[in-house]
Automatic annotation (TrEMBL), chains A, B:
Keywords: DNA-binding, Transcription, Transcription regulation. Signal peptide: none annotated. This is Helix-turn-helix transcriptional regulator. InterPro entries: HTH_HxlR, WH-like_DNA-bd_sf, WH_DNA-bd_sf. The keyword Transcription regulation applies. SUPFAM superfamilies: Winged helix' DNA-binding domain (SSF46785). PANTHER family: TRANSCRIPTIONAL REGULATOR, MARR FAMILY, TRANSCRIPTIONAL REGULATORY PROTEIN. Residues 13-117 form the HTH hxlR-type domain. One of its GO terms (molecular function) is DNA binding. It comes from the Bacteria.
Length: 121, 121
DNA sequence: TGCATTACTTACCAATTGGAAACTAGTTTC
DNA sequence: GAAACTAGTTTCCAATTGGTAAGTAATGCA
C-alpha cells in the first residue's frame, strides 16, 4: 500500500482551516468587501451615499449586507435626526482589522492584471 | 442640496475595485482556498490525496476547482505513468503569491475566534 | 473472472444568492 | 396637494452553487 500524504490532520491545520472558513463566511457574498473598502476610505457614510457609490449594488443587497456587517460588529449604524432622517454607517476599530486582508486582495488583483498583459515572467 | 461623499470615482479607486473583484473571482467558491492551502503545505499531491485530505469535498467539486485553478495557472497538473495512472497537482510559483492573502485570512479568523471567546477588548 | 484502485464525468436535484421593480413611511419642499 | 428625498422592505424570479450517487475507462491483483 502506498503511503499517502497527510497534512491537514494535525490540530494546527484544523485550526487554520476553521479560521479560513470563518473569515470567508464573514466576508461572504459579492458585496461585503466592497462596502467595507468604501467605508474604510470614506469614513462615515450614509445609506444613499453607499448606494450611489458602490457601482451596481441594489438597495436590498446593501441593506442586507450592512446588517450582516453590523451583526459581526465590523460596522456601526447610527440614526441621525436630520430633516429627512439619515443613517450613518462607519467601520469599527475591529472592522479596521480587515484592512490587511483587503489590501492583500487588492494587491494581488493588480499583480494579476499586470501579469495578464505585461507578461514579465 | 447636500454634498455627498464621492470616494470611489477616481481612477485609483476603480483600479482597486477591479483588483478586488478579480482576486475574489479567482478564489471563488467554497473550496479553492482550502485546496490551495493544502497544496501549499503538502507540495506535490495526487487527486486521491486531496480528496481524502480536504474534509467534505466531493470528487466533482475537487475536479472542477482544480481545473479552475489550473486555468488560472495557480496549480499544475502532471500525469504520472504509475501502475494505476496517478495525477500530481502542485502549486506554481505564481500560485505561491497567494500565500500572503491566505495567511492574512487565516490570521484574521484566529483573531475572530479569540475575540468571540476571549473578549480582550 | 471479478473486485479494487486511479481519476474523473455525468445526471439530477435542492438550496442559496442575487437582481429588478414596486412598495412603505415619514418629512420637506414647491 | 404633489413631488422628492430619506432608508429601507417585500415580492418574485433566474442563475449559480454545490451535493449525492452512479457511471466510465484503464490497469492490476487474487
Amino acid at each position: 500500500m502506498l503511503k499517502s500524504k497527510t497534512v491537514t490532520k494535525s490540530l494546527e491545520c484544523k485550526v487554520r482551516i476553521t479560521a479560513i472558513t470563518d473569515t470567508m463566511q464573514v466576508l461572504s457574498g459579492k458585496w461585503k468587501i466592497h462596502i467595507l473598502g468604501t467605508l474604510l476610505q470614506g469614513g462615515k457614510m450614509r445609506f444613499m451615499d453607499l448606494l450611489r457609490e458602490i457601482d451596481g449594488i441594489a438597495a436590498k443587497m446593501l441593506s442586507k449586507e450592512l446588517q450582516d456587517l453590523e451583526m459581526n460588529q465590523l460596522v456601526t449604524r447610527t440614526v441621525v435626526d436630520t430633516k429627512p432622517i439619515t443613517v450613518e454607517y462607519e467601520v469599527t476599530e475591529y472592522g479596521k482589522t480587515m484592512e490587511p486582508i483587503i489590501d492583500e486582495i487588492a494587491n494581488w488583483g493588480v499583480f494579476y492584471r499586470n501579469r495578464l498583459h505585461g507578461k514579465t515572467d
